[in-house]
Write a structure and sequence with these properties.
2 copies of one chain form a homodimer.
Chain A (H helix, E strand, L loop, with lengths): L1 H19 L2 H12 L2 E2 H5 L6 H14 L2 E6 L2 E6 L5 H30 L14
Antiparallel strand pairs in A: 1-3, 2-3
Helix pairs in contact in A: 1-4, 2-4
The first copy, chain A, binds a DNA duplex (30 and 30 nucleotides) through helix 4.
DNA sequence: AATAAGTTCAACCGAAAGGTTGAATAAAAC
DNA sequence: GTTTTATTCAACCTTTCGGTTGAACTTATT
């Protein structure tokens, strides 16, 4: 069952990263981060058709980044405040990986420095 | 001049988000977060042609997420540890925006509660 | 010098993305 | 009850994407 969970997490990451890769969609997210808004309001500043913006909103909605609640004929959009956690977590994990590696390299360098060139016969000494 | 800077930042965000939207490319980044590697090594685990992986690497390189240094006929790839900062910053900014808004809403609610409806008897109490 | 290994370049292909326009639907306002 | 307003649906078009294959290029190996 973890298989499925992992698979869907990957798909979610795909969707969220892809959703945020478009500048129009990021602008929509910025807009919605400040207050919720209707489709027409969101579309207003953009130099493209309302339909195009509507499609962008659908992409954001499908990725889970924005949510919609309808009130009569108006659709109110708002951002899903938890939706960026997974992306954030992924980035943080990567940073963790490479920082661990860089730390290890630093330790090696420090070790080499502490005990400089042991002359002709090199004795290797890996810490830990 | 800030115009151009902002424009290029937007383009960089586009490129990095788009680069990370593909699961193969994220896997490559994960691989490189642990150690640098050559193109062939990176390609090995993937069920696609070497050329396809080479193209993915180019996309990552163009986005600034990975870097390449050639040694003879081999190309060594490594991740650019600063490259995710902008994406991270953008996400953090969004979070900041909506948290500010949510805090404001909370304050309003608290205010309403402190001075409850002059009507008969409903007194709600939101836990802090 | 000939061959093998590591990698990219170039052309191609099908599918998806991002946009358009023109209905269609549903609720509000007149 | 007809007309606006808010929004989506559907079809289409062009560009980009992710993959393929085959050739070219550069550096090692023999």
């Amino acid at each position: 069952m973890i298989e499925k969970k992992v698979a869907s997490r990957t798909a979610r990451l795909d969707a969220v990263f892809a959703a945020l890769a478009d500048p129009t969609r990021r602008a929509i997210v910025e807009r919605l981060s400040r207050s919720e808004a209707r489709v027409t309001e969101i579309a207003e500043p953009f130099p493209m058709s309302l339909n195009a913006v509507s499609k962008h909103i659908r992409v954001l909605e499908a990725s889970g980044v924005v949510e919609r609640h309808k009130k009569g004929r108006e659709h109110f959009l708002s951002i899903n405040t938890g939706s960026l956690d997974e992306v954030d977590g992924w980035i943080e994990r990567m940073r963790h990986y490479w920082e661990a590696r860089l730390d290890a390299m630093e330790r090696v360098l420090a070790e080499l420095n502490k005990d400089p060139k042991p002359g002709p016969k090199d004795r290797k000494h890996v810490s830990r």
